[in-house]
Amino acid sequence: MTRALMKTLLCALPVLVSIALLPGCSGKSLNENDPKEMYEDADADVESARYLIALDKLRVVKSKFSYSKYGALAQLRIGDVYFMQELFPEASAAYETFVELFPKHERTGYALFRAGESYYRDIPSTIERDLKSGESAVTTFTQYLQRYPDGEFATQAREMKTSAYNKLAQKEFEIARFYIRRKKHASAKLRLEKILSFYAESDVAPKAQETLNQLPNE
Questions:
Q1: CA-CA-CA-CA torsion sign (127, 133, 138, 139)
Q2: Distance between CA 193 and CA 188 in Å, rounded?
Q3: In whole angstroms, what is the distance from residue 166 CA to residue 89 CA?
Q4: Which of 4, 14, 112, 120 could be joined to 52 by an S-S link, Cβ 3.0–4.6 Å?
Q5: What's the whole-number mean pLDDT along residues 91-111?
Q6: What is the pLDDT of residues 43-92, one digit of tens each?
């Protein structure tokens, strides 16, 4: 195998060895003690969709230079890489770690919004499945809007929050209907009252009130 081919494979395939043993994919040797060089090389890997290699380098920067400028950027970029791969639980965790570690950073608003978006994109397409990610999306977008009501992502945050909020309310309504079909009116009433208490502004709230009014007294 030629040296050029070996280098191509190293840049294209998952790596199982320490990043300290790898040269940069540009061909130059990386100085692991230079966070700027490591971060910029990892960023070049991200732009070329060499995500696994980029993650290895970003983790080194984050670990060795945790509270430096590039340590912070590496933590944020890790979230971006997971998001690009549609690994949304990992992305939300990485973004939330950034928010926790760097609450006053200039990119904290972006990280908080992206955490909410990661939860939002992880919501199942059908309400029959667990919608825990929908609850997390609503909570995270609420936090973003409280901190950045006129922020760069405020409009998108409101739209996605409303969408997730309506989906959660719809699930409660479908559960109520399930109980009604089985003549379990007390259980249905609890679900309908939950909609009116927690999702009063949802699209389904008027229908929930109408259904509640029609339930027989027990």
A1: positive
A2: 9
A3: 21
A4: 14
A5: 97
A6: 999 999 999 999 999 999 999 998 899 999 999 999 999 999 999 999 99
Q: Which two tokens stand for residue 200?
A: 């009063």
Phi-psi map region of 27: left, alpha, beta (phi>0 left; psi -120 to 50 alpha): left
Q: What separation in angstroms does the CA of 138 have from each of 75, 90, 116, 131, 209?
A: 23, 18, 7, 11, 23
CB-CB contact of 179 with 149 (8 Å): no
Q: Residues, the chain, total?
A: 218
- In this structure, are residues 76 and 95 in contact, taking their beta carbons and an 8 Å threshold? yes
Q: What distance in Å separates the CA atoms of residue 71 and residue 77, rounded to the nearest whole number?
A: 10
The rounded distance, in Å, linking the Cα atoms of 74 and 157 is: 24
How big is the CA angle at 147 (ends 122 and 162), to the nearest 5 degrees? 40
Q: Provide the CA 159 distance to its chain's centre, in angstroms.
A: 16
Q: Is the pLDDT of residue 154 over 60?
A: yes
The Cα–Cα gap between 214 and 13 comes to 61
Contact 16, 55 (CB under 8 A): no
The SS3 of residue 148 is coil
Give 187-213 pLDDT, tens digit per residue. Answer: 999 999 999 999 999 999 999 999 999
Is there a contact between 121 and 88 (Cβ–Cβ < 8 Å)?
yes
Q: Which of helix, strand or coil describes residue 48? A: coil
Element (H, E) at 14: none
